[in-house]
Amino acid sequence: MSSSSTPTPTKYQLSFLVPPANLEACKAAIFAAGAGCYPGSGNYTECCWTIAHGGVGQFRPGKGANPAIGTVGELEVLEEARVQTLCVGEDVARRAVAALKEAHPYEEVAYAVVKLEDF
Question: Which of 53, 96, 113, 119 could covalently link to 30 via disulfide, CB atoms 3.0 to 4.6 Å apart?
Fold first, then answer.
């Protein structure tokens, strides 16, 4: 039995942390880059999973840092939201990360990209 269908693009999960005040701007940026679109006949877009309240992050900006939030040398503790979304294709994942870095207020954005398996 031969298969003549085109290969399915690789899927990635993009996860990131963001202060709640910047949540919507970051989501809009990654969606504009193509993240959050599910393949198939449903044409779902702007899909994500968000924990918007209750998460707490911390960091201490080091010497030479230019923090958007906090002060060099002082521990900063603040509420952060976590967002997870799907990126279909490596090109979409790379564009979404670039858009996230542009929209995000942090000097160093906390994010992860995980390659997904299709079983």
Answer: 96
| pLDDT tens column, 4-59 | 566 788 999 999 999 999 999 999 999 999 999 998 888 999 999 999 887 999 99
Instruction: Output DSSP code: residue 10.
Output: P
With contact defined as beta carbons under 8 Å apart, do 86 and 11 qualify?
yes
CA distance 49 to 52: 9
Structure tokens at 73: 């040398």
Burial class from Cβ neighbours inside 10 Å (0-12, 13-18, 19+) for residue 45 reads exposed
| Plot region of 19 (φ>0 → left; ψ -120 to 50 → alpha; else → beta) | beta
Domains along the chain?
11-115 (3.30.70.120)
**Total-model pTM:** 0.88
